[in-house]
């Protein structure tokens, strides 16, 4: 089963990143969590398969992926790297034709994961910075 994975560094504590990462609406412009029916504004709907607050992992599937894939399952993992920094890994396992794998690596890995992880990192860093300012004042 193919896997696409991307990882990014975030200059914010893992707890701050996790509080955002497990709520797509706070950082992802297109994903919405499917709960008792799709939200009206969702471009892409996901179904949460597993969530572990202690382990800071969230796994989900897309019932109707916009890519030529099947059996999709993605996982977001937030790891504490100490000193108010963390890492986020976003990976997806799926089935796809051999001919589509390179295009998926580019479109899903780079166009989706990298851009969204950059947005998550910026949002977490801004949130953490604002918390630091509020606590200092």
Residues in helices, as a percent range: 25-40%
Number of domains: 1
Strand order of the largest sheet: 1-6-5-4-3-2
State the order of secondary-structure elements, H for helix, E for strand: EHEEEEEH
Mean pLDDT score, rounded? 87
Shape: elongated
- How much strand? 35-45%
Main beta sheet: strand number and arrangement? Answer: 6 strands, mixed
Class by helix and strand content? Answer: alpha+beta
CATH topology: Alpha-D-Glucose-1,6-Bisphosphate, Chain A, domain 4
Number of strand segments: 6
Task: Specify the number of helices.
Answer: 2
The rounded Rg comes to 15 Å
CATH architecture: 2-Layer Sandwich
According to CATH, what is the class? Answer: Alpha Beta
Uncertain ranges: 34-41
Distance between the termini: 51 Å
The CATH superfamily title: START domain
What's the gist of this structure?
The chain is of the alpha+beta class and 137 residues long. It has a single domain, classed as 2-Layer Sandwich (Alpha-D-Glucose-1,6-Bisphosphate, Chain A, domain 4), CATH 3.30.530.20. It is 32% helix and 36% strand.
Structural commentary:
- It is a single chain.
- With 137 residues, the protein is α+β, with helices and mostly antiparallel strands.
- The chain has one domain (3-136): Alpha-D-Glucose-1,6-Bisphosphate, Chain A, domain 4 (2-Layer Sandwich), CATH 3.30.530.20.
- Helix 1 (14-21) packs across helix 2.
- It is built from two helices and six strands.
Features:
single chain; 137 residues; alpha+beta; Alpha-D-Glucose-1,6-Bisphosphate, Chain A, domain 4; 6-stranded mixed β-sheet; elongated
